[in-house]
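Internal ticket - ligand job 451, flavin-adenine dinucleotide:
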Amino acid sequence: MATLVKAISGWGRYPLQTCELERPERYADLLSDADSLIARGQGRSYGDAALNENRRVLLTERVNRLLEFDIEKGVLRAEAGATLAEILEVIVPKGWFLPVTPGTKFVSLGGCVAADVHGKNHHNDGSFGDHVIAIELILADGSRVACSASENAELFWATVGGMGLTGIIGEVKLKLIPIQSSHMMVQHHAAANLEQLFQLLQNPAMDDRYTVAWIDSLATGKNLGRGIAMCGHHAAVDELPAGFGNALATKPERSRTMPFDLPGWALNTLSIGAFNALFYRREGNKQQPFLTGYDPYFYPLDAIGHWNRLYGKRGFVQYQCVIPDGVAFDGIRALLQELSGSRRPSFLAVLKRFGAQGRGLLSFPMAGYTLALDLPIRDEGLFALLNKLDEIVLRHGGRVYLAKDARLSADSFRAMYPRYGEWLKIKNAVDPQNRFSSSLARRLQIGEGTL
Ligand SMILES: Cc1cc2nc3c(=O)[nH]c(=O)nc-3n(C[C@H](O)[C@H](O)[C@H](O)COP(=O)(O)OP(=O)(O)OC[C@H]3O[C@@H](n4cnc5c(N)ncnc54)[C@H](O)[C@@H]3O)c2cc1C
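stdout (structure tokens):
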């Protein structure tokens, strides 16, 4: 099959690497003859998970047919290149929704399984893999195997969260959740500091199916960790105002596109500080429940195409980690102190409570709190800061999310993912030549040799 040699990146635009791109048009052509390859969905992972420098990258975007939709039972079967956006268009008008969704709908089903993505409902509903009924996996020798929690279960849980390194996910069968309307009922709660924010996130009286908190990453001293907890659920029909019309109707969202790269200096302590103060006041005042569409609630950033250009040409790193329950408050406070002391503004800082650890051997979530920070790359100093954040995370028994990562060390990876040894045994059994590899895998020495 023809290949195109091109420099590509993940969503953070760092690193930029030359890869050989191959784009099969049909399911039957999904496997490549290359010695080293990695599947790529929509390239929405931030770092180098879907890159394979000077080697083959298999673009799955054309293999995206929706194959079966059981409207009675809410079960969908689709090729793994299908995006959540394509799926939502079909399922929402029929009264169904995704069981778990990340903060963008422009991701593929394969990418959601491979990263075992989480949503704002992790503390209630677990991660994506928990709702996958079965997948078809294409192995290094070309054979196709059906995997699920009950059939080839070991391989299934090595693939859920396995970052594409066990094979190519060809098909996914997913259990959906029922909804009565396409709208969300949302309520905001402001917290003046981190302590209050944790209290809010732990308070069952305030909690909702979906809960996430925005943090003002520049606040210091007694305001450190001030933020807004945003809680919501799919609105029931009886929560809609009289005369609402078709509860399941959706209207196309208007989207704008960032037409150019913003200069590196545009996002600075001053501009982000001003934005944060405004956001805290405006959103914190929404203390009464309000109705909004599912798009602005789940995917606010999707309204601006190419918003990653905001960070300038050198790109940015999203640092997402989780700190386990018990030490989460201390760990998150230490991370925020290190960050605010560095005077490196994070445009986005999000805190979320996770529920129990899932069954994926390399899955990211564990019971605790996850913090995500978007940090523009201005100079090498950023990487020194991130190494310090890793030390804090390790000291508190936490881990960094591979789908966002571009710079973790192999040693830190081993310390953060204790089930790696179990995973490697399965990897070696199904891919003894280590054909499925990526830039992330080589950087972190995942899949190489024995333990
Ligand atoms: C704005 C934004 C918000 C986000 N919010 C969240 C969030 O809330 N929660 C969360 O968990 N993540 C979040 N993410 C990360 C994103 O959901 C994951 O990185 C997801 O894996 C991206 O899917 P993709 O199709 O773009 O995959 P890619 O980036 O193309 O690939 C990601 C990984 O999946 C593998 N992969 C992709 N397709 C296949 C396949 N068919 N077979 C085997 N392996 C495959 C790749 O090899 C790679 O390792 C967010 C990303 C963005 C840009």
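Auto-summary: The longest strand covers residues 183-191. The chain has two domains: 66-179, 183-407.
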